[in-house]
Amino acid sequence: MKKLINDPQDVVAESVEGFGLAHADLVAVHADPLFVARAGGAVSGKVGLVSGGGSGHEPLHAGFVGVGMLDAAVPGAMFTSPVPDAITPAIQAADSGAGVLAIVKNYTGDVLNFETAAELADAEGVTVRTVVVNDDVAVEDSTWTAGRRGVAGTVMVEKIAGAAAERGDDLDAVAAVAEKVVANVRSMGVALTACTVPHAGRPSFDLPDDEMEIGIGIHGEPGRHRVPLQPADAVTEALLTPVVEDLGLSGGEQVLLFVNGMGGTPASELYIVYRKARALLEARGVSVARSLVGSYVTSLEMQGASVTVLRLDEETTALWDAPVHTAALRW
Amino acid sequence: MKKLINDPQDVVAESVEGFGLAHADLVAVHADPLFVARAGGAVSGKVGLVSGGGSGHEPLHAGFVGVGMLDAAVPGAMFTSPVPDAITPAIQAADSGAGVLAIVKNYTGDVLNFETAAELADAEGVTVRTVVVNDDVAVEDSTWTAGRRGVAGTVMVEKIAGAAAERGDDLDAVAAVAEKVVANVRSMGVALTACTVPHAGRPSFDLPDDEMEIGIGIHGEPGRHRVPLQPADAVTEALLTPVVEDLGLSGGEQVLLFVNGMGGTPASELYIVYRKARALLEARGVSVARSLVGSYVTSLEMQGASVTVLRLDEETTALWDAPVHTAALRW
């Protein structure tokens, strides 16, 4: 195992500590239990946004804490759901009295632990609503999921709901816009290589040198099928087509196109995928009105990429464009 | 070779095309000869900034074209210097009459080709000054370099000189601030794995599973020595110590600390390196006043990182803080 780490048990704590030191203008790290909150605490009168999940997908979620996006993020152990004892204080830290929206990727452990945490916070007087992100069209039910998995579309939910909270929407309205994004965002990914979880010390699955896995999950969960190595244009079509069909996109619609790197993929390859995905959308008469290209929802050092499409309307476009100031997204 | 590419000969052209489509608000791509210019063309009265070099180090340099940084970038073939026939029109595109500063990483081919291009541009009436970046303290003279190599510190030169040009400094003044950054920035890197140049089809060097190379170059040029795998804290000390000593840093000084990923390194590992590098600087009484953590000067999918330290003064701090709007850096 080749990694720039110290004791494998300390990876999450040390990396979040470093993150907090590098971005002290944006975030405050609470060490025990571990969560990352917006610097300066909850914003008076604003709905709080909290997300979290297993570590290893950085910059998700802590990289999205800041103005216009999340108020707190809860990193679990590597590829392991955070525990309610960490989620509950994060929810409390994010609450200014206007309530909290929890944004949860659809994995059984995450959903259960956020549910328990929401009940505990509710008992302390915090109103919590939850939205579950399930954008991965690759498979129904997976290793750690009932229903579709939540993957890169989570970035769109956090950004757009975050902008709604920032402009002063109340909890019901922020939850409604988050649900609108969930209903209109779909993703699918491909892996060229597996990744190695530090405390496991070996790759999480085997993928032969001459194969790739179409429909991979962000923890290496099985996808739709393994195929011999293919050119990027063919892979891109294999990812985009199910996404477009599941969304039921028609000519004349406007979308946000997001090409996400899994962690070990050069930027040049992501732009090659973006180029083809955009051409395929345009050939269907779909207009790419907004774009995001980069490694935002990763699987440690996995090589691969995912394609996410969000159907836009006037409201979600304006909320996407609204200012954001976090470690990983800023405009 | 596992890559999300089509024909290996088309990687640079297709990826720059995708980059241009994704960032059409910021850049315009000129296809033949290939260069990337600021959208809207040269800014009247402003000194133009041009950089370039072999591809494979993205987001360097095209990712830094935009307001407050570069006016044009020239991507060569993979790990291959761009030719004068591409550099000269990029220099001309960047010139509004106030002259052009060329920022060149110290590799023999880059220096020669930029020199030839500057002479050709001069013959067309463009005044060109050149600054050569040579921040890598690992070795004197290397596979493609006489003297020290230019690596991640190039980002600091481009940002700070870009801000000086944006505020209206003349060519001599922009060149002087760029030279000040060059004189005060040092870097050193480590590789855990090699990378594969697409048209070569195999790793550019062999690195055994139980070794890392301290002092690696961004094209895989040999470093100082190979060592058995070590904890991140020990590796960080091995990188930071020569950087600090070469800079002659003293207690009470202020620096910018930049931990750069080589392309295949998870963000979590970069923050572990940052945490230790910061602690080591603080133990010497050096204050980390500004920080940058991310994969900005990469070597395709290489796993590894580099540590860059820039000695700051009031002027360079203010220019670092000045607004920037590019694909890869924005504030």
UniProtKB/TrEMBL annotation, chains A, B:
Record InterPro entries: DhaK_1, DhaK_dom, Dihydroxyacetone_Kinase
Catalytic activity line of the entry: dihydroxyacetone + phosphoenolpyruvate = dihydroxyacetone phosphate + pyruvate
GO terms for cellular component: cytosol
Record keywords: Glycerol metabolism, Kinase, Transferase
The keyword Transferase appears for this protein: yes
Record SUPFAM superfamilies: DAK1/DegV-like (SSF82549)
The keyword Transferase appears for this protein: yes
Pfam families attached to this UniProt entry: Dak1
GO molecular function, one term: phosphoenolpyruvate-glycerone phosphotransferase activity
Entry EC number(s): 2.7.1.121
PANTHER family from the UniProt entry: TRIOKINASE/FMN CYCLASE (PTHR28629), TRIOKINASE_FMN CYCLASE (PTHR28629:SF4)
NCBIfam families registered for this protein in UniProt: dhaK1
Protein name (database record): phosphoenolpyruvate--glycerone phosphotransferase
Taxonomic source organism: Cellulomonas marina
Taxonomy of the source species: Bacteria, Bacillati, Actinomycetota, Actinomycetes, Micrococcales
